[in-house]
Design brief:
The structure holds two protein chains of two kinds.
Chain A lengths: L5 H6 L31 E3 L5 E4 L9 H13 L6 E4 L17 H28 L7 E3 L2 E4 L2 E4 L38 H4 L16 E6 L7 E5 L2 H4 L4 E7 L2 E6 L2 H14 E4 L10 H7 L3 E8 L3 H4 L5 E9 L11 E7 L2 E6 L4 H12 L6 E5 L11 H14 L5 E4 L2 H7 L6 E9 L5 E11 L49 E8 L14 H19 L3 H7 L4 H14 L10 E9 L6 E10 L6 E11 L6 H21 L28 E7 L14 H16 L10 H8 L2
Parallel strand pairs in A: 2-3, 7-17, 15-16, 19-20, 23-24
Antiparallel strand pairs in A: 1-2, 4-5, 5-6, 7-10, 8-11, 9-10, 12-20, 13-18, 14-15, 14-17, 18-19, 21-22, 22-23
Chain B lengths: L4 E5 L2 E5 L7 H8 L18 E4 L2 E4 L13 E2 L12 H8 L9 H14 L5 H8 L9 H18 L1
The chains are: A alpha+beta, B alpha+beta.
Chain lengths: 732, 158
């Protein structure tokens, strides 16, 4: 592959360019243009007329590649087939940090849209000179500028040198959304055909010349140390090239993949470990959470002080909601390929952040960052910080031990189940009072949570680096700041309430490694707030949808709630025994997509079996770029949250994590998915993009719990709403 | 060195040199460089590795290559290509039935086995049959629609 040294090209050279007067507006550059202000850092046009879009964000199965390509095609007025995409690569693309937090459309989408629009303006300006016509007499169609009976193709205008190698302006003349032909339309995903025909689509599919295979023998428990290993017999096994040991990092490299697996199993038997009961204080989970020392932050305090407000309301309601440790549970275990050549390590990785990973790997290997090159390659869906970065570290260590050959490492199922950073357990406690009219008079809310991000960071945030003979220490956890927050994400209610007091108890200790799981704390906080709003509505004898809308000043929030309720048929719903309806709403992070979800459930009294029959969702993600992409994200979020909410909890004893496969950690299967799931989208042309990827997780959970309460009269506040828990609550 | 094994794979005869105890999945991926069947669990719990052996959907992660024998093996590569997708693949494209897509090749092969045996399954039969395969992105509704679409297309052609 020919690689242009993008970073060095952009380092010093800034070509001056005279902007039309109205374009020289002051203000910050929109989206990630602030991080990479050069237009050709985002869009380039080749001499063949093909457009290359460069993004620092990555495809995680959310369809971002297609949406970004649509934006570029729209603003450049060129057929989407003529646009291709380069995703995160530490030597080619902008550093856009992590692909996380439903930020990609806001950050990268906004940058690409503005860069593409400004590129079009520049090209039309050049065409005007070339054709000796005023800009107003020119039009563009599929990369060809026309006017006065003449035409010129974009690529013919590039002869003047690096015409797009200029700094972007804060303002761009964006195309009128009403006249869009590509953006806002359901373009089929560009990555799907290869994925379902056996094309090379994933990091798991990379096959390089001379590639060998590594497998890691992990300690049997987090506190175990390796006392002895007799590797001689393993080293004599067919195909085995090397056994690598550094502290309690133990691995094997073999020629063929299954030879590596077989050797790993033998090496497991040959290794002797000294184990510690490091998890004995973690059970019961929620006692451990409550006991853990906390740093307390008052993240919202408005209205009268809590003490004074306590007596205001006439009726008090309180409740506590809890979620367990949860898995990301990628179907494909994490995988990476690393190759050390002439002192430089190239790593193909499905990390959500190739630049932070490069920094951490360089620290672990003790080399300058320039000696590590991280290239994103798709993996199985991750839903947050799974084993992606960790397996990249494994591969980098094994590439160092076997230089000159690419080393592919794929985790086994039990590696992912035991060692991925879990979603942390949380507790939320709510107290409120109602006034004489049934309105909320006071609202007090506390949430306990450890960190929701242990992403690298430093080398100590890579699993293998903490197992080396000279181990790196994990970065001390810090709370993610508001307004987005971590454990306190969505802990502040969006409703207008006369008195609100919200406290975040941040727990710096984390007995089991935890990190970002799709929607972070919003899953529990929205579950809690929206369950609690239902409990309050019931106490006030007001319909829960009417109750919510009555407390909601935001018109867009009201609109998604009305739409979901209407399409569900909320008002005309007829209840039958053990069948009920539930409703919930949230605006993700209180600043991204608005989502309202209504559902109908049935609970079997004898078995506790819960069936979600019907789900209707409404979503407002601002201006829509790919409606089917939004629909797919909402459908997926709802079904995944249904799985989390009804089935999932990590289990462990005093020593070890015990939920090591899909038998011990069941997730949703086809017979359990809803009969019907409808998503209704409100398009807001001209409004900023609001991320959709995580919008459904919290509302889906609360809608299900509220429907269970409606069906059975029993309120379940502990997740998951498992069959055994339901049977205990409603059984005969 | 073990004696070569002959596989009837996607309508062609292929010779492989793997140890007969090697699971078929590793032979397909590592020796024959096919991407379709995926490693998911190695335990027969998730179906990412699903292929057809004879007329049945099978977990290729559990089947030693030595026991396949004469039975024809079909992987997703045998149904069509990126540019010329077969009817089942076409149905998945038409329904945009993928998010990350890692499970989808296995889903397609399991669905293919169903329709080859029963071209007119009920929705309940589809759900029951597909229960073996896991999807984590929550693409289930679209996968069910794609299988339905493929079945309907099969009927309208016959």
């Amino acid at each position: 592959m020919k690689r242009r040294s993008f970073l060095s090209a952009t380092g010093a050279l800034v070509v001056s360019f005279r902007w039309p007067a109205d374009a020289v507006a002051q203000g910050p550059l929109p989206g990630s243009l602030a991080k990479q202000p050069l237009i050709d850092g985002w869009v380039r046009i080749g001499t063949d007329g093909r457009v290359t879009v460069l993004t620092g964000k990555v495809e995680l199965g959310q369809g971002i590649k297609t949406a970004l390509l649509q934006l570029a095609a729209e603003e450049l007025v060129i057929a989407p087939e003529r646009v291709s995409l380069v995703t995160a690569d530490t030597e080619r693309t902008a550093d856009e940090g992590y692909t996380a937090g439903s930020h990609s459309m806001q950050d990268s989408g906004t940058a690409i849209r503005h860069a593409a629009a400004q590129a079009r303006t520049i090209l039309i300006g050049l065409a005007a000179t070339r054709l000796a016509l005023p800009v107003a007499q020119l039009s563009v169609e599929n990369g060809v500028v026309r006017g006065g009976g003449q035409s010129v193709r974009y690529e013919e205008l590039l002869t003047a040198g690096q015409v797009l190698h200029v700094k972007a302006a804060p303002q761009a003349s964006l195309r009128d959304p009403a006249r869009h032909t590509v953006a806002g339309k359901p373009l089929p995903r560009i990555d799907i055909p290869a994925k379902l025909s056996g094309g090379a689509a994933y990091v798991q599919d990379i096959r390089l010349d001379g590639m060998v295979h590594g497998r890691v023998v992990r300690p049997p428990s987090p506190g175990a140390s390796l006392t002895q290993v007799d590797a001689a017999a393993v080293e004599r096994m067919p195909g085995v090239l090397k056994v690598v040991r550094d502290g309690r990092f133990l691995a094997v490299i073999a020629q063929r993949e299954y030879q590596a697996v077989t050797a790993m199993r033998a090496l497991e038997k040959a290794a002797q470990w000294s184990e510690q009961a490091t998890l004995e204080d973690v059970e019961p989970v929620y006692d451990a959470v409550r006991r853990s020392p906390s740093q307390d932050f008052v993240i919202r305090n408005q209205g009268r002080a809590p003490a004074a407000a306590a007596g205001v309301g006439t009726r008090g309601v309180s409740a506590t909601y809890r979620r367990p440790y949860m898995l990301h549970g990628s179907i494909g275990p994490s995988c990476a390929v690393a190759h050390l050549v002439d002192g430089k390590t190239t790593v193909w990785t499905h990390s959500q952040g190739v630049f932070p990973l490069r920094k951490a790997l360089a620290e672990m290997l003790g080399v300058p960052e320039a000696s590590v090159h991280c290239i994103h390659a798709e993996g199985s869906g991750c839903y947050g910080h799974n084993g992606a970065d960790d397996v990249a570290a494994d591969a980098a260590l094994l590439a160092r031990a076997w230089p000159g050959k690419p080393v592919r490492v794929q985790w086994m199922r039990e590696d992912e189940h035991a060692w991925e950073p879990f979603g942390p357990p949380m507790i939320a406690s709510a107290r409120a009072t109602l006034d004489a009219t049934g309105g909320v008079a006071s609202w007090n809310y506390e949430v306990w949570s450890s960190t929701h991000s242990s992403r690298p960071g430093g080398a100590g945030d890579l699993l293998a680096a903490t197992h080396l003979a000279k181990p790196f220490a994990p970065t001390p956890p810090k709370p993610l700041p508001q307004p987005e927050g971590g454990g306190d994400r969505n802990a502040v209610p969006l409703y207008a309430l006369p008195q609100v007091h919200v406290v975040h108890h941040f727990l710096p200790q984390m007995p089991l490694r935890v990190s970002a799981l799709r929607s972070l704390g919003a899953y529990l906080n929205v579950f809690a707030i929206e369950s609690f709003m239902d409990e309050l509505a019931r106490a006030a004898h007001i319909d829960p949808v009417v109750f919510r809308i009555g407390h909601m000043p935001d018109a867009r929030a009201q609109e998604v709630m009305r739409l979901a309720a209407d399409r569900f048929g909320w008002a005309r719903f007829k209840r039958s025994p053990m069948r009920g309806r539930g409703f919930a709403f949230a605006r993700y992070k209180n600043l991204a997509a608005y989502a309202a979800i209504a559902c109908e459930v049935e609970v079997r009294r004898d078995s506790g079996e819960l069936r979600v029959l019907r789900v209707v969702a409404a979503v407002d993600s601002g201006e829509v770029v790919n409606p089917d992409g939004i629909r797919n994200q909402m459908e997926g979020g709802i079904v995944q949250s249904l799985s989390w909410t009804t089935l999932e909890a990590v289990t462990f004893d005093s020593w070890r994590v015990t939920s090591l496969d899909w038998g011990a950690y069941p997730i949703l299967r086809f017979p359990q998915v809803p009969e019907q799931l409808d998503v209704h989208i409100i398009d807001r042309p001209g409004q900023p993009f609001l991320g959709t990827g995580e919008a459904a997780q919290g509302p889906a959970a609360a809608a299900i719990a509220n429907a269970v309460a409606d069906a059975t009269g029993v309120r379940i506040r502990d997740l998951p709403l498992s069959r055994s828990r339901l049977r205990a609550a409603v059984g005969p | 060195m073990t004696a070569p094994i002959t596989l009837q794979l996607n309508g062609r005869s292929r010779q492989v040199n793997s140890d007969p105890a090697t699971p078929l999945l590793y032979v397909l991926r590592d020796e024959l460089a096919l991407n379709g069947a995926k490693f998911g669990c190695g335990l027969g719990q998730c179906g990412a590795c699903t292929v057809m052996i004879g007329t049945e959907a099978a977990f290729s992660c559990l089947v030693p290559v030595g026991v396949v024998g004469e039975r024809p093996v079909k992987t997703v590569e045998g149904l069509g290509s990126k540019h010329e997708p077969g009817p089942m693949q076409r149905a998945f494209i038409d329904e945009q039935a993928a998010q990350c897509g890692y499970c989808i090749a296995g889903m397609i092969m399991r669905a293919q086995a169903l329709l080859e045996r029963n071209p007119s399954p009920t929705d309940a039969e589809i759900r029951r049959h597909m229960a073996v395969n896991l999807c984590r992105c929550g693409t289930h509704m679209r996968i069910l629609r794609a299988v339905r679409r493929a079945a309907d297309g099969l009927r309208s052609r016959t």
